[in-house]
Each structure stands twice: as C-alpha cells, then as structure tokens.
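If your schedule permits, I should be very grateful for your opinion on a structural question. I would ask you to consider whether the tokens describe a fold that such a sequence might reasonably adopt. Thank you for your consideration; the sequence and its tokens are set out here.
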Amino acid sequence: MSGHDVKTAEVIVLKDGEAVAQHMAHWLLEQALAKKGSPFVISLSGGTTPKRLFQILAEPDIAARFPWSNTQIFYGDERYVPTSDPASNYTMSRETLLDHVSLPLANVHPMPTDADPETDAARYQKELQAVYGANELQPGKPLFDVVMLGMGPDGHTASLFPRQPVLKERTKWVATCTPDNAPHTRLTLTYPAIHSSRHVVFLLEGAGKAEMLARVRKGDDSLPSCHITSEGDVTFLIDEAAAQDL
C-alpha cells in the first residue's frame, strides 16, 4: 500500500460490498497478527460497510485467530447520543462484533457521551494519550495502526463536516462538530490524529459514492475528505459501483 494522501492513495476495486468487507476483515487479521511488542490500535467507523465487516470479524474462523487481547479499539467519531440510541456507532459495533468475541472490556474505548461534548472530547483525548504513552503526537510514532473511514454524500469523513470549525483544528486530537446539514452534535478525531497512523483505509461501496469519490481523487479542496493524510499510507477499498466515475 502506498500514498500519503487521497490523491496519491492506492485504489483497490472489488466486485461488491461483500467483497470489500471480506477483504478488509482478512487484511485486518494479517495486520493485527503482525503487530508484536505493542498493542494493535484501530479506529473504527460506523456505517453499512463496517457493519458487515464487524459481522465477518465475529465469525468463528476469524474471531478465534484474531489477537483480541493485544488489540485496542477506538472510534473515529460518534454522534452525541446515549448508547441506547440506534444512531450510536459504539452500540452498532458492540451488537455486531464486540459482544461476540473475547475482547477484554478494558481494550474497548467508546467515545463518552454523558457529560457535555467539550468535556467528553477532552476525556477521550486523555484515553488516547494514555494508550499512546505521550501527550503530544510524535512523528515516526503513529497513534493508530489502522484508521477506518467512510465518506458522506457531502464529502465529510469521520465527523469532519464541511464549513465547520473542526476542519481548522491543528492541536486537539478529538474535537466537537455540529454539522449544519446533518442531525446531532458529534465527537470526532481531528486531521492531526488521523494523520498519526500507519494505514488509513476508506471503505466505500455503491453508486451513491461514485461522484464524490471522483471529486476527492481530483483534489476538490472544498471536501473535508480531500484533506485526509497519513504518516503511512492511504487506501481506498471500494466496490465496482463506487469506482464507476474514476
């Protein structure tokens, strides 16, 4: 895999959403098994493709081989809703994956949504700093092994929405965002936190993603997804329908 930003990223095109989820599941297993001496740290995303991915990771043949005890799970963003709300990314991942595998409870880090957004963003940054072992991001020492991302019809990714102040955040690792075109205040990883990664993988499927993906690949700077970078590599793992405008 190669390319540090969305314009130079590798694009892997597979038949359909099922093939994308299967490919990602097996690739994640390889990455996790290869990580020795320190935890495998992953940031999960919400959405339909990750939901299927989580189901595959929970299937016995993969779940039995995955090094759960050495895996630390974080989230790229979260709607500021209670965990009882169906819109919660954490709850979706718990129901499809976490409840079905032998992952130690202490290794799962949901974004908190029980105080107020600013306080909880700061709390989450402290959790990340504790696993990272430092309070400042250091070049050559990625915070995440893998950051999973999706992309919305407005070009947002994680909860980095167009026109919002969070797009200019350069110091915080976690910040709040209240989009003007979608419900719920959100907590989200910032550009610097996502950049501190070995691999950023966009999982996209369906014809509805095709036009926006083409605009991102051409470098349309008005789209938040265009500004995603990684210390390691950025990859688009997509299906044929999402690739049709490339």
Observations:
- The chain is about 30% helix and 20% strand.
- The mean pLDDT is 96.
